[in-house]
């Protein structure tokens, strides 16, 4: 072991190397975001309860039928009205959490006009996809009352698979500008790293993340002909070549370990559970709330309850599985690049730049975190340094 290796147990210097004021701010910011999550969840629950128990849902369906007797149009009118109502209710919270709070903590560089533009784009995409999904759902409920849940789960999974491939070329350019990375040396290093992992990429691109945030990121996105390496410009401007290599090596590990197929398989299970729960809840709730049948759009809140319920239950389990994948990806990055010092410095930089809580409470990690804590990842790198 050379004299330049740290002679301390992993994690001993973490508290001294991280800016204590920055970490205090990170804890405060993380706590506010968690509270906002529960407030947002509570608003959704209150709206669903009002729809079911105050008769709002039946009244909304009756209003739709007063305009047209066509089932698909009633579904469309109901869905649009419900979407507008929820948007208006949640908009103040969305503005605070998406614009005010990040600016207050120095994480956002986006103008108010830019935030409004992005929000309108997100609403338009959600409206089109959401309305299409609800129309398909109710067409299946009318035509396949016994097997709708199985077909809907399959269609939702196929849509998710398509979005995995198309999002980098269809959706992401709506929000960010991309340009080919012009640094020939870095392109060559990252391309060699990808080839060594058996990943065929269609180029290395830079994303103008600085137009919206001070945070840094990198990703390997798409499938087949849309597979590409994307680096945030905030990463390029603040990190060395070695550090960027370790970040990409981590992302490539997900390809090597087949994490995408594993994730899609997990999503298939969750979708089946969600649709199965919705079928059971509809069969119970239709007579309980005196709806006309499972294809009565007034019963849509029961479907939403099932989706929320399974999602909340699955969240900690899904995060647990994802953390295992991320730990394996960290080990792969360290083994492949053999640059534990660079990996360690990346984690310390990201903790400060992204305002990440280095050592969150255990219950927070279990419920909310899809990645190991910064402290755990730094400790892993320090163990690699000590053993090298």
Question: What does this entry look like structurally?
Answer:
The chain is mainly alpha-helical and 388 residues long. 71% of the residues lie in helices and 4% in strands. The chain has helices spanning 14-17, 20-53, 56-67, 71-104, 112-143, 148-170, 184-196, 233-236, 241-256, 259-288, 300-337, 340-353, 362-368, 374-387, and strands at residues 178-180, 204-207, 218-221, 228-232. It has a four-stranded mixed sheet with strand order 1-2-4-3. Helix 12 (340-353) runs antiparallel to helix 14. The longest helix is centred in the C-terminal third of the chain and has 38 residues, at 300-337. The chain is elongated.
Order of helices and strands: HHHHHHEHEEEHHHHHHH
* Strand arrangement, major sheet: 1-2-4-3
The fraction of residues in strands falls at under 5%
Mean pLDDT: 92
CA(first)-CA(last) distance: 7 Å
Characterize the biggest β-sheet: 4 strands, mixed
Structural class: mainly alpha
Would you identify the regions where 5 or more consecutive residues have pLDDT less than 50? 1-11
- Quick one: how many beta strands? 4
Principal-axes geometry comes out as elongated
* Gyration radius from CA atoms, angstroms: 24 Å
- The level of helicity is over 70%
Question: Concise description?
Answer:
This protein is mainly alpha-helical and 388 residues long. It has helices at residues 14-17, 20-53, 56-67, 71-104, 112-143, 148-170, 184-196, 233-236, 241-256, 259-288, 300-337, 340-353, 362-368, 374-387, and strands at residues 178-180, 204-207, 218-221, 228-232.
């Amino acid at each position: 072991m050379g004299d330049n290796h740290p002679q301390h147990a992993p994690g001993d210097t973490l508290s001294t190397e991280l800016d204590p004021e920055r970490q205090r701010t990170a804890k405060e910011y993380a706590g506010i975001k968690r509270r906002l999550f529960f407030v947002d969840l509570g608003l959704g629950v209150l709206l669903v309860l009002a729809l079911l128990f105050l008769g709002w849902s039946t009244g909304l369906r009756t209003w739709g039928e007063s305009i047209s007797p066509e089932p698909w149009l009633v579904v469309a009118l109901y869905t649009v009205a419900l979407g507008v109502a929820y948007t208006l209710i949640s908009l103040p919270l969305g503005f605070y959490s998406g614009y005010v709070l990040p600016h207050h903590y120095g994480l956002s560089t986006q103008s108010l006009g830019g935030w409004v533009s992005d929000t309108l784009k997100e609403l338009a995409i959600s409206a089109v996809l959401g309305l299409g999904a609800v129309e398909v759902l109710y067409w299946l409920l009318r035509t396949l009352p016994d097997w709708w849940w199985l077909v809907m789960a399959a269609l939702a999974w196929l849509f998710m698979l398509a979005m995995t491939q198309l999002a980098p070329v269809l959706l992401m350019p709506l929000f960010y500008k991309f340009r080919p990375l012009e640094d020939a040396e870095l392109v060559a290093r990252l391309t060699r790293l990808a080839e060594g992992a058996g990943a065929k990429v269609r180029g290395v691109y830079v994303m103008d993340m600085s137009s919206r945030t001070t945070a840094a990121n990198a990703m390997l996105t798409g499938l087949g002909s849309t597979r590409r390496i994307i680096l945030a410009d905030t990463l390029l401007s603040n990190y060395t070549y070695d550090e960027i290599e370790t970040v990409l090596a981590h992302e490539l590990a997900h390809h090597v370990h087949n994490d995408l197929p594993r994730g899609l398989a997990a999503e298939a299970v969750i979708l089946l559970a969600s649709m199965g729960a919705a079928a059971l809840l509809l069969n119970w709730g239709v007579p309980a709330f005196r709806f006309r049948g499972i294809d009565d759009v007034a019963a849509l809140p029961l479907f939403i309850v099932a989706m929320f319920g399974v999602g909340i239950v699955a969240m900690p389990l899904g995060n647990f599985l994802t953390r295992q994948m991320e730990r394996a990806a960290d080990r792969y990055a360290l083994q492949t690049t053999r640059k534990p010092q660079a990996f360690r410095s990346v984690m310390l930089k990201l903790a400060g730049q992204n305002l990440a809580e280095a050592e969150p409470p255990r219950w927070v990690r279990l419920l909310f975190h899809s990645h190991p804590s910064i402290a755990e990842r730094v400790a892993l790198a320090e163990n690699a340094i000590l053993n090298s």
